[in-house]
Specification:
81% helix, 0% strand
């Protein structure tokens, strides 16, 4: 009985420490997200307006919305324990869809759509890696389950895949 009690105390202590670490990581991810999206927004503004690149200009609206969401989570997380507690979920629920929206808006204006999709693949990969930092297997799986279909949808939009695609090997 004493061993069971000790084991449950250790598990309880571990669960409490893990929850505290997830809150801390979620808060730092929110701050890093706000800074990164702000930098991406600044890059799009400079490249779009000063260099006249249309594919960057069309990113301004979705990136502006993404930055407002990111900034809101970072600021609210500073003052709210509830927001900090659930901030790690925002990687799957906000980052993956917003990366898709930015890519979807950019593709019709891209000079090289396949290159844009390749870049977005890297961004989706980074989103999944960010989910790894949350220390939550369910969050990593949810993020991957969001990112992979969204990336495939972008590839369909560029014509890299067709609705009737099949393997040409071993038929």
């Amino acid at each position: 009985m004493g061993e069971t009690f000790l084991r449950s105390e250790i598990q309880s202590s571990f669960d409490h420490s893990l929850a505290a670490e997830r809150q801390l990581v979620g808060h730092w991810l929110a701050i890093i997200r706000a800074a990164a999206v702000g930098g991406w927004l600044g890059l799009a503004a400079v490249t779009g307006h000063f260099l006249g690149r249309r594919e960057w200009t069309v990113e301004l609206l979705p990136l502006g919305a993404y930055w407002i969401l990111a900034l809101s989570i970072a600021v609210l997380g500073r003052f709210s324990v509830r927001v900090r507690r659930y901030a790690h979920i925002s990687v799957a629920l906000i980052d993956a869809p917003m990366v898709f929206v930015v890519g979807f808006a950019t593709l019709p204006h891209a000079t090289n759509p396949q290159g844009t999709v390749a870049f977005m693949t890297a961004v989706f990969g980074m989103v999944i890696m960010l989910a790894l930092l949350t220390l939550d297997v369910r969050n990593v799986l949810a993020t991957a389950c969001m990112c992979v279909p969204l990336q495939i949808a972008l590839q369909f939009r560029t014509g890299l895949f067709r609705a009737d695609w099949r393997s040409d090997g071993c038929s």
